[in-house]
Amino acid sequence: MNRVPLQQPQSCGPWELKERLGTGGFGNVTRWQNKDTEEQIAIKQCRQELSDRNKERWCLEIQIMKRLDHVNVVAAREVPQGMQKLVATNDLPLLAMEYCQGGDLRKYLNILENCCGMREGSILILLRDISSALTYLHKKRIIHRDLKPENIVLQQGEKRLIHKIIDLGYAKELDQSSLCTSFVGTLQYLAPELIERQRYTVTVDYWSFGTLVFECIAGFRPFLPTWQPVPWHNKLRQKLDNIIIVYEDLTGDVRFSEHIPQPNNLNSLLLEKMERWLKLMLKWSPQERGKDPSATPSDCFSQLELLLQIKLVHVLNMSSAKILTYSVSDDETVANLQLRIEKDSNIPAANQELLLEAGLALEPHALATQCAIDGRRTDFPLVFLFDRSSCVYEPQFAPRTLPENIRFVQTDPNYVLAYSPLRRTCGQAWHTIRSLKEDWQRLQQGQKAAIMSLLRHNSSLSKQKNEMVSMYQRLIAKLDFFTTSLHIDMDKYQEQTATGIGTVKVSELEEEMMQLQPDIVDVQRQPWRSGELHGCFTFKFCFYVLCSKTALCRQRVMELLPKVEGVVQKMAESEQVLMSLQERRQRELWNLLKVACVSKNDLAFLCAVVQLENHTPMQYVSTLSMESIFLRILRKWRRCWAFFKTAEVIELHWRSVSMCTPRNLKLETLSTHSPLMLTGCSSDFLLLKSTTSSFVLVVLRSRLLSTHQSDSL
């Protein structure tokens, strides 16, 4: 439609006429806006000179529009009060519809970006929307008969563009004059049986839909778009069912092909499936069109739905710059995907590192669908494949295959092309340049993902280092505390401290990580100053040097991580052992202190111990306090411990504190109650039993004690 400017403003109550959206053979369409609510509607008005048959069709279209309700079919609105009398120039009713601000599909296809076809995501969205609308109409026993880009409008939704079908239920009468005057650009979307004025079914919409989809993929119509109706029809009758394109090459020869031509924006996997589907939609015979007896399900829309449900994963191999596309199931894991990648890239699965754009690595046990796209998404997320075994990246990329028209021009630069092939050749040249630019942009995205991954690992390494240093300092403090509090027990802990934390290992790891930091900072810097321009080879050399540095730093970080984690684990184990020993020592000391809390009857027991140990007269011992007796015993044992290198520890149980008196002390030989071999020990050593407490005493051989009888208390 061509928009016509208004000569003078016109209003109907709160509604104000804004512009004429288009004028054609059917009449005109205008856009109105409510000044109060800012709601916009499109008013369609038919020409007065329509035939009676077309007037009936017009009234039928209004009735059909009012009873339809589908998101991909333009919705009818109520005509504002008073507008029928103001606008209508005849007795035919007006048709009010929702206004779609995105324009029609033809306008979208004419954008330079779509000169060689729409983007893959946009094509999938178009397929989903229009197939859903046609399925809905056919269930309502409605045939559109005039499906083309001009009859599909775009409305911006919350997340994406929504395609809607317009001009429902209205078709022009096809006679010889209309065939000759309006064939180009309109009638090429019509099915052959409509042009031949034969009986038709819903399969006429299949032909129109297939033609429209082909144009959205390749950027031009599939069957001799510049030919006149009669030779076009005669030549097209020669095509077989598997032929989906008939075109005229630059030399003027007509060629038949069953493949979608290059360039286009579909990946290889989706391109193959679309070719099979288009062969169903573009069959010449209306009885066979849209059916595949060898497939289940056999109808075209069911097969298209299966195609749209495919989840695709695009993997960019950073070593070859090739994009590998895989269809994944809902329960397929990343590990299974890596095995498939190994067959295509020759990179072992163990050496593969799959990174998302944010630098996050895909875990082998995770689902592959987390990075997949389907027919509901328009974006093109990539997974970047790196080889862990290689830290050097070189320009070994395979060049793109140039389109046929560009190769022809390179072969014969002086050949003068007609307007239509020249326009297509220029579009292919622009598309090729844009594709090369996007290839480099994707490589830069992969490099950014590698840097993000490096920074993420470096952050984890820094946290581990800080935790290691902090834990090391805590361990040193606890070790110092433990050492100062254990003057007597230090010899027993020599073996533990000798196999504990080693400061050399921590210092070496910290020094190695500090040496790595300048390399990581250097990787994040640009290899050239901001604003400087360099040649292609300089830029390429710097790019691969930076890629190699990034990979090398990542490898060094990954090597350091397990070392730091191992040291941290060993320090944690040593800390637990140290605290266990400290708790044991504390329990032993407190058990000794419990002796000071015994009753008055225990004094006699302690006196007996002092007398036995030191051969002191009982009369003198009885004059001492309980604390003095205990401290004298402890002091004596500590001197013995410091003097002798060897000592044996046994546990003495004090069974009944109230019964422990010099009269009923029970003497037993130590050899019968201790696992130690006490050869030569006299009965001076007693086994004391208690039901309320236990403590550890240092017991020395009696023969050694006899040498120190001269020591006084």
TrEMBL record:
The keyword Protein biosynthesis does not apply. The keyword Kinase applies. Residues 308-374 form the Ubiquitin-like domain. GO terms for biological process: positive regulation of transcription by RNA polymerase II; tumor necrosis factor-mediated signaling pathway. InterPro entries: IKBKB_SDD, IKBKB_SDD_sf, IKK, Kinase-like_dom_sf, Prot_kinase_dom, Ser/Thr_kinase_AS, Ubiquitin-like_dom, Ubiquitin-like_domsf. It is an enzyme of class 2 (transferase). One of its GO terms (molecular function) is ATP binding. One of its GO terms (cellular component) is nucleus. Residues 15-301 form the Protein kinase domain. It catalyses: L-seryl-[I-kappa-B protein] + ATP = O-phospho-L-seryl-[I-kappa-B protein] + ADP + H(+). Its EC number is 2.7.11.10. Keywords: ATP-binding, Cytoplasm, Kinase, Nucleotide-binding, Nucleus, Phosphoprotein, Serine/threonine-protein kinase, Transferase. It is found in: Cytoplasm; Nucleus. It comes from the Eukaryota. This is IkappaB kinase. It comes from Astatotilapia calliptera (Eastern happy). The lineage of its organism: Eukaryota, Metazoa, Chordata, Craniata, Vertebrata. The gene is IKBKB.
